[in-house]
Amino acid sequence: MPRLPPEKFLRLLGGVTVIAILGFLVLPAFVVGIAAFNDRAILSFPPQAWSWRWFAKAIAYEDFQAGCRNGLIVTAWASSIALVVGAAFAIALDRYNFPLKRALEAVLLAPLVVPHFTIGLGFLILATELGVARGYAVIVACHVVLVLPFVLRSAYVSLRNLDGRLELAAASLGAPPHRVLTTVTVPLLLPGLVGGWLFAAILSFNEFTASLFVTAQRTQTLPVALYNYVRDYADPSMAAVSVIYILATATVLTFANAFLGLGKVLNVEHAS
């Protein structure tokens, strides 16, 4: 049999490896998605009979409704605050030199390496020492710390790819610094900022480990509500919620791709 050239063999091997990795990552979601349609009141695969009743139960379950509502509130505040704070720190780190600059960057990126349960426990202890109830303020502050590195890096990459001559041209035409910022810098950074906000929102809504420490019964987010549910029940309602969450995330990313282009949002291609 004829032998494949080395470059074609490596290309084929790379394609097979990528397909295998994608299959390994997608397979659990596929199994959960099929199990959500099980007619029996127990998680099993493959289903003996098909039914939509677990989707109806998941949507009507009050704790899931409250968890989704709380999660959306926390996500909206946390991702928006992280966007403003992260963009400001990114501009400061990119444009200015000051003492302890690298130390500040390391602190801001620390949540990438510090376990989330440590951060959640730390916020719980801090709230207890200050006498603050485990309300939305504590949860939002905790989530801002957790998602800030993703917004910071996204905005920083956009700044590094920004053509500084455009800002200089606007300044040379008489535009004051604040006008250059609002009419040139921010619009050019918008794809990166939107990408950072999307990452922050998805991660915040899906955050469980730290949220378990800082939420109370009335403020529990959806992942915490799912955890409390699975301690008492083992029906496919959780699988149904997972399918709904996957579809919602895919819808958001589809709209982002339609209006902005995922390549621009995720900083993998430059605007034409």
Annotate the secondary structure layout.
Blueprint: H1 6-35, H2 53-60, H3 62-95, H4 101-109, H5 116-130, H6 136-161, H7 164-172, H8 177-206, H9 211-214, H10 222-230, H11 237-259, H12 262-265
Q: What is the beta-strand fraction? A: under 5%
Q: State the end-to-end CA separation.
A: 47 Å
**Main sheet properties:** none
The number of helical segments is 12
Radius of gyration: 23 Å
Strand runs, count: 0
Explain what you see:
It is a single chain. The protein has 272 residues and is mainly α. 74% of the residues lie in helices and 0% in strands. The protein has helices at residues 6-35, 53-60, 62-95, 101-109, 116-130, 136-161, 164-172, 177-206, 211-214, 222-230, 237-259, 262-265. Helix 1 packs across helix 11 (237-259), helix 2 (53-60) crosses helix 11 and helix 3 (62-95) crosses helix 10. The chain is globular and about 70 Å long. The model has no long low-confidence stretch (mean pLDDT 84).
